[in-house]
Amino acid sequence: MSTNSPNSFRDRSTPGSTDDQVLSSSSGSMPLLTKLSRPFLTQNQLEHLRTLTGLSGPKFNSMLLHAFDQIWNIAQVYNFPMRTIGTAMLLFQKTYLFNLLQNFPPNETTIACLMIASKIEDTPKKARELLQTSYYIKEVTISSTQLEEIRQQVLSLERQILETIGFDFRIRHPQPYIIKFSKEMGISRGDALVAWNIAIDAYATDAVLRFPCHVVALACIFLATKVNEFDVLPKMNFARFFCKKVQLKGAVLDLLEFYSHSLPASRLGKINQSIDANTFINFRIDINKQFRNQNKPEPHGSVEGLFIRDPKLSDKGTVRYILDWERGHVSGEPLI
């Protein structure tokens, strides 16, 4: 069997392989590798990637929340809109799904994600400006030589982050849907505001990696009304909102998992200090009762083609990045 054939490519790849190993197995073809954008992943796929990177648990969550605080504080200086903040947070999450920590220093990666987000959302800022603001907020003095060295690192990371997301800029956010759905269901302004803040916290959860933004928006509204002791579930027209109950349950449970462990550091915990973690543990019990008939397991999700990214991948040959609808145009090419 020819090493250029798709079947040969799949036979030689294994779940523990790196992009480098896959690339070498497909030598001789042009392009050497075609990478498919993956806007959403299943829980099984997320766990597989985190096993490969070793980035999970309390230590990683602490790093994630610290980076999000940094993004938030810098964004306030420049009055960035929520879409820029959310995009930066989402980019940070996705970056560490496919890359090793040793290749992506958290501070420089945070600035790179915010810089890319500012470009994607038409609120552009240069790396130097963002770095200067970051060190000013931290009250750290840095020489111009050091600043230039770090700026070069940020610019280098920019390309690698873009490759990580497959140059897929189809990024949407739950906040606009929260406004529309709240009006549709007659949700109070106070509940909608709580849902808005929960949506900011959602960027630190698996919900934004697993579900479309309109599902996350409904989960935020559901949890916000739950906090204020109001049951919004009867008002939710799932067919009209293009959402399945099992999806809503999954997104809500992701949010509850986050609040059960990280409530004090969350936006919700900071604006409503009367809530404690036990509240969300009790919510989990109530929600399991409300959705007792929604126990259909999530699609397992194949881990084929999910690898730790090789940072030098594009230096070794041509890599084509495609969106899902472009699959029909790449028949015969190695696809991951």
UniProtKB/TrEMBL annotation:
CDD domains assigned to the protein according to its UniProt record, in alphabetical order: CYCLIN_SpCG1C_ScCTK2-like_rpt2 (cd20546)
Q: Where is the composition biased (Polar residues)?
A: 1-29
Pfam families noted in UniProt: Cyclin_N (PF00134)
BP GO annotations: regulation of transcription by RNA polymerase II
* Residues passing through the membrane, by range: none
Keywords of the record, alphabetical order, are:
Cyclin
Which InterPro entries did the record assign? Answer: Cyclin-like_dom, Cyclin-like_sf, Cyclin/Ssn8, Cyclin_N
Query: Which domain of life, per UniProt?
Result: Eukaryota
Region described as Disordered: 1-30
Limits of the Cyclin-like domain: 69-163, 176-257
One example GO MF annotation: cyclin-dependent protein serine/threonine kinase regulator activity
The answer to whether the entry has keyword DNA-binding is no
Q: Which family does it belong to?
A: Belongs to the cyclin family.
The molecule here is called Cyclin-like domain-containing protein
